[in-house]
């Protein structure tokens, strides 16, 4: 395992820990999830370029597309939440209410 792979694993773990521990604001949770997705993009790009696999060359582009969709949906939820509740605290949201 190279130092680059170790650094990427540690960064992914820190983003995962940040998303699970810091659940006060919706914006910080969305940023941690976006960080995890970008680390996955970098890992798949490094793996496909290191191993010279042409069959998996489209996977990083698919991950970027899903990341853009996730970011737009997250920002939409953030705007709607801040308009209806006047803040982005996750404790104010009642997700079980219809």
TrEMBL record:
Q: Which GO terms describe its cellular component?
A: mitochondrial inner membrane; NADH dehydrogenase complex
**Keyword Membrane carried by entry:** yes
**InterPro entries tied to this protein:** NADH_UbQ_OxRdtase_chain4L/K (IPR001133), NUOK/Mnh_C1-like (IPR039428)
* Membrane-related topology note: Multi-pass membrane protein
Q: What class of enzyme is it?
A: translocase
User: In its keyword annotation, does this UniProt entry include Membrane?
Assistant: yes
Molecular function in Gene Ontology = NADH dehydrogenase (ubiquinone) activity; oxidoreductase activity, acting on NAD(P)H
E.C. number, please? 7.1.1.2
Which Gene3D superfamilies does this chain map to?
1.10.287.3510
Q: Which UniProt keywords apply?
A: Electron transport, Membrane, Mitochondrion, Mitochondrion inner membrane, NAD, Respiratory chain, Translocase, Transmembrane, Transmembrane helix, Transport, Ubiquinone
Gene Ontology terms describing biological process: ATP synthesis coupled electron transport
What transmembrane ranges does the database entry give? 6-24, 31-51, 57-80
Localization per Swiss-Prot or TrEMBL:
Mitochondrion inner membrane; Mitochondrion membrane
Catalysed reaction, written as an equation: a ubiquinone + NADH + 5 H(+)(in) = a ubiquinol + NAD(+) + 4 H(+)(out)
Q: Which PANTHER family match?
A: NADH-UBIQUINONE OXIDOREDUCTASE CHAIN 4L, NADH-UBIQUINONE OXIDOREDUCTASE SUBUNIT ND4L
Q: Quote the function comment for this protein.
A: Core subunit of the mitochondrial membrane respiratory chain NADH dehydrogenase (Complex I) which catalyzes electron transfer from NADH through the respiratory chain, using ubiquinone as an electron acceptor. Part of the enzyme membrane arm which is embedded in the lipid bilayer and involved in proton translocation.
- UniProt record similarity statement: Belongs to the complex I subunit 4L family.
Q: Which protein, by its recorded name, is this?
A: NADH-ubiquinone oxidoreductase chain 4L
Species assigned in the record: Leiolepis reevesii
Corresponding gene? ND4L
């Amino acid at each position: 395992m190279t130092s680059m792979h170790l650094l990427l694993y540690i960064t992914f773990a820190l983003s995962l820990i940040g998303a699970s521990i810091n659940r006060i604001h919706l914006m910080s949770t969305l940023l941690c999830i976006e960080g995890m997705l970008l680390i996955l993009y970098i890992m798949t790009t490094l793996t496909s370029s290191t191993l010279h696999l042409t069959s998996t060359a489209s996977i990083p582009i698919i991950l970027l597309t899903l990341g853009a969709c996730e970011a737009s949906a997250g920002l939409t939820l953030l705007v709607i939440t801040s308009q209806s509740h006047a803040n982005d605290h996750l404790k104010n949201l009642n997700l079980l209410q219809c």
